[in-house]
Amino acid sequence: MEYSAKVMDHFMNPRNVGEIEDASGVGTVGNAKCGDIMKVYLQIEDGIIQDAKFKTFGCGAAVATSSMATELVKGKTIQQALEVTNKAVMEALDGLPPVKVHCSCLAEEALHAALWDYAEKNHIVIEGLKKPVNDIDELHHHTEE
Ligand code: FES
User: Fold this and answer.
1) Is residue 72 part of a domain?
2) Distance between CA 51 and CA 103 in Å, rounded?
3) How many structural domains are present in the chain?
């Protein structure tokens, strides 16, 4: 499988690994097929994403896409962060092999789940943001009910 130099760089030296204590929004998503899990933390102040961190238990492409996705949203407004789609992440990484495209989708979903969490906590509606489907915390709540 061919990975770009950028993917390798973000896999070997991932940016923004870790947690944010008292984060404004946290999103955890998973892919049932490969079993990979991604957690994204966002620190949002005055509508700007001041900081973003992640923890990913998954493949190299999952690590590289979460690293790039968190890099791309830092310093952005919430609306700009919504433009950080899986395609944008893939482009920034100079592409991914076809079987690894779903890893970039997971990064987008984790980002959206964190934004959704932020919106819920603050009782706001983020225009254009859909409820994340692979939200693990959400699934957990459902099984508990
Ligand atoms: Fe599933 Fe990469 S193989 S996220």
Assistant:
1) yes
2) 22
3) 1
pLDDT, position 52: 98
Statement: residue 145 has pLDDT above 90: no
Note the pLDDT tens digit of each residue in 72-112.
Answer: 999 999 999 999 999 999 999 999 999 999 999 999 999 99
Our answer on whether the CB atom of 61 is closer than 6 Å to any ligand 1 atom is yes
Could you give the residue numbers annotated as active site?
34, 103
pLDDT class of 141 with cuts at 50, 70, 90: low
Ligand 1 closest atom vs CA 34: 1
Q: Say how far apart CA 114 and CA 101 lie, in whole Å.
A: 21
Q: Which domain holds residue 70?
A: 5-134
Please state the pTM of the whole predicted model. 0.92
Domain contains 141 = no
Report the CATH number that the domain containing residue 46 is assigned in CATH: 3.90.1010.10
Q: Per the domain annotation, does 143 fall within a domain? A: no
Cβ neighbours of residue 111 under 8 Å, at least 6 residues apart? 27, 40, 42, 69, 73, 81, 84
Pocket of ligand 1 contains residue 59 by CB under 6 Å: yes
